[in-house]
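Annotated sample (chain length 183).
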Amino acid sequence: MRKIGYARVSAAHQSLDRQISALRTEGCDAIFREKASGKSVKNRPELEKAIDALGIGDCLVLSEWDGYTRSLLDGIALMVRIHDRGTLIKVLERSAMDLTCPIGQGVLALLSGIAQAERQRIVKRANEGRVAAKAKGVKFGRRRKLTAHQQAEALKRLEAGESTRAIGKLLGVSHATVARLAG
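Output written by the structure step:
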């Protein structure tokens, strides 16, 4: 039986080191790693490679279940896919769970539901925070590259016939930024 590991974090700035260390300690023959959102299992090429690498009797090893999914349906779909391949799932954070039997699989489905509920709470809190920030007048998005004074100066120079490249060089921005001002 081969052990195929899969590690995932949501954001590029997050580290996979802890998960990879746990998977190595478990003795995984191969470890697939990915930085992708936990919202959905779509567009996760490394997860697909990990599942494709599984042969009959092999085991997909995850360090944390919610590292795989935050959706009840995705969690159940994974269990079905793995079961249909004649392989097993092992979740290191849930060492007491035997995922080869119906009770263990039911517990895992329950955990998937809890992870999905947590994801919904996170999204709700984030949306409420954005609404509150907007009400306070907080501006979202990137800062403008040019101040209002610099924009006025750039427009004045454009009207005088200066090139966007020359103005951009003077203001320390690209010519495209200046060109967008002219609209």
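Annotation: The longest helix spans residues 102-135.
Annotation: The beta strands are 3-9, 30-35, 59-62, 88-91.
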